[in-house]
Amino acid sequence: MKNLLKKKCIPCEKKGMKPFDRDRAEEYMVDVKDWILSEDSKKITREFKFQDFIGAINFVNNIADIAEEEGHHPDITLSWGLVTVTIYTHALNGLSEHDFILAEIIDGIPLLETSKK
What we know:
The protein is α+β, with helices and mostly antiparallel strands. The protein has 3 helices and 4 strands; from the N terminus they run αββαββα.
């Protein structure tokens, strides 16, 4: 465990910063167990299921607020009762520690509280 929740996303545009290789990405996957590492090791993805559309929308809005606060923006796909989140560092075209920080933060969003009737 890397205590990722105690860290903050910072910009990755620094010269010389390289994306994680597969071995390094797999080390971090231990902290985000429900996420899936892509075949090329450049992205992590997770699906979140909901009982209704409004629950999915509220969850997406929560992610949007967090992404703005962190300055790190995932790709989000929304459909009825399903949200798919894909995270990678766009500037690196691959993974960095910041992607795993964001994944852990998203994992902390209470799913049951997102659906309001």
